[in-house]
Design a protein that fits this description.
The chain has 16 helices and 19 strands. It is α/β, with parallel strands linked by helices and 499 residues long. α1 runs parallel beside α15 and α15 crosses α16. β1, α1 and β2 form a beta-alpha-beta unit. Strands 1, 2, 10, 11, 12, 13 and 19 form a seven-stranded mixed β-sheet that branches. The two termini are 40 Å apart. The model has no long low-confidence stretch (mean pLDDT 93).
Length: 499
């Protein structure tokens, strides 16, 4: 009988971080990954000698002393990563189809405000108020700043503030409203639902500092895995968990698709909470809890174009390009169905090759899983010719929009590859290919905030559905989960001392 102290399901960033923390503290940890490759959204793949990221395209808060820098030092990552800092005065560029102006996001809160004020001179006070609000919100989330106090009851209203309403209250300038929300694809914001804290925590990190990982983000997964194994941990690939095993009404093990059962004292699931509950017999969970989690709405998915350029054909952009067909950056299912695509995000990954020219580009546009439901029961490589034709048609539609911002773009392309919400679903294991997991709703904040603790005493949750998505959000979630075992004050001190 194989017995561990802790079994972790899933080897995405959260699973690996939990494995690192707990194996570092002397626990006998086993991480189970259903695929042959670890990493989840940290995975890379190579086409035509070009490295493409699956999900982590740029990272915020890595300057000395900033939040993620301090966390990454604890995880031993800062010395392992080759990083490229994006342009200080334009790490993100927001553009609109009816407007020739590029609106630039600059690093540093004052620089951010002053740069946009050049195009919105009457809005200087609004911009200052906006950046002050971002910092205020982040200061009220203790682990963002590596503090171990809990949120006070008086601070709970932050979860019910609406991002769309707040931005519109700061400025009446419609263009500036859309510019401030222009990085919407980082959180798939919906006007009537997305909380302000989601917008603030995501954007503030990038305003602090923005970076690309040179030659792909899989080095993060590989470095964490190497450290876990050096600390005595086990990582098993091709190990798909099919159900949780109970003995005398106590969770004691997991059964794999091979019918092998592995045992442990504690369990952490880094996969989607709904997928976790599907593996638990109904009698071990209250019906109300199960139904609440299973029925939560998830964020939308993406259609992605992976472009390989002809040699020296397209210059490397040391910023990310957000483009909208119209003056409306918020996610609307009506727009997606009627006028696809209405936006795109274009990124030229950083490579150790040419500095002047880009080897490749990743271009993303929202797409709902419903658009590909015809093929939902198929598997990768076996979806049929009609699916390939569908993807080709969508790729050409997306390139039509890219041409509006970059005339002649098609001429720079050597080859391109595509992925749909089904591709993302099958490679990352997310429900419906969801980009960011469970949709946070300011109207029902407690319903959509998932606690790491479950109704089963020795089963914890982690991942992008706990706290927040993104590298920083997932990292904070991993620390929150592990603190239930180690104690929050103890763990925070360990992380602080590592820096």
């Amino acid at each position: 009988m194989k017995k561990f102290d802790i079994i972790i399901i899933g080897s995405g960033l959260s699973g690996l971080q939990c494995g690192y923390i707990l194996s570092k503290e002397g626990y006998n940890v086993c991480i189970l990954e259903q695929h042959k490759q670890i990493g989840g959204c940290l995975q890379n793949f190579t086409r035509d000698n070009c490295i493409f990221d699956t999900g982590i395209h740029y990272i915020g808060g890595l300057d000395e002393g900033q939040s993620l820098n301090r966390y990454f030092k604890y995880f031993g990552l800062m010395d392992k990563l080759k990083l490229k800092r994006l342009d200080n005065d334009a790490f993100d560029v927001i553009s609109f189809g009816d407007d020739a102006t590029d609106y630039k996001y600059a690093m540093g809160h004052e620089n951010f405000s002053e740069t946009l004020a050049q195009q919105f001179p009457k809005e200087k006070e609004a911009l200052r108020k906006y950046t002050d609000k971002l910092r205020e919100l982040c200061n009220h989330f203790p682990l963002y700043n590596l503090e171990y106090k809990n949120l006070e009851v008086s601070e709970m209203h932050f979860f019910s503030e609406n991002a769309f309403d707040y931005i519109n209250s700061v400025t009446a300038d419609k263009k500036l409203q859309n510019v401030l929300a222009g990085t919407n694809p980082l959180y798939a914001g919906i006007p009537e639902k997305t909380p302000l804290y989601v917008h603030a925590l995501v954007n503030n990190s990038f305003i602090e500092s923005s970076w690309r990982v040179v030659d792909g983000s899989s080095v993060i997964a590989d470095s964490l895995a190497e450290a876990i194994q050096a600390q005595g941990g086990t990582i098993m690939k091709n190990a798909k968990v099919e159900k949780f095993v109970f003995e005398n009404n106590v969770l004691s093990g997991v059964e794999l698709s091979t019918k092998e059962t592995l045992y442990a004292d504690r369990f952490i699931s880094s996969i989607h909470p709904a997928k976790t509950l599907e593996m638990i017999d109904e009698k071990y969970l209250r019906k109300a809890y199960r139904e609440r989690v299973m029925n939560l709405e998830n964020t939308t998915s993406n259609f992605t174009l992976y472009v390989v350029f002809k040699p020296n054909a397209f210059e490397y952009m040391n910023h990310n390009q957000y483009f909208y067909r119209k003056d409306d950056v918020w996610l609307s299912h009506e727009n997606i169905d009627k006028d696809w695509p209405y936006n795109f995000l274009l990124i030229t990954p950083a490579s150790s090759g040419s500095e002047k020219y880009a080897d490749c580009a990743t271009i993303m546009a929202y797409m709902d899983i419903k658009d590909v439901e015809k093929w939902e029961h198929t598997t990768i490589g076996k979806r049929g010719d009609d699916y390939l034709e569908f993807k080709k048609q969508k790729a050409e539609q997306l390139l039509d929009l890219v041409e509006e911002r970059f005339p002649g773009f098609r001429k720079t392309i050597k080859k391109y590859y595509t992925s749909s919400p089904l591709t993302f679903r099958d490679y990352t294991g997310t429900v419906g290919g969801s980009l960011y997991g469970i949709l946070k709703d300011c109207n029902e904040p407690l319903k959509t905030l998932i606690s790491p603790k479950t109704k089963i005493p020795n089963l914890l949750l982690t991942g992008q559905n706990i706290i927040l998505h993104g590298v920083l959000g997932v990292t904070i979630g991993s620390v929150t989960t592990c603190s239930d075992i180690l104690g929050l004050e103890y763990l925070v001190k360990k992380i602080k001392n590592a820096g």
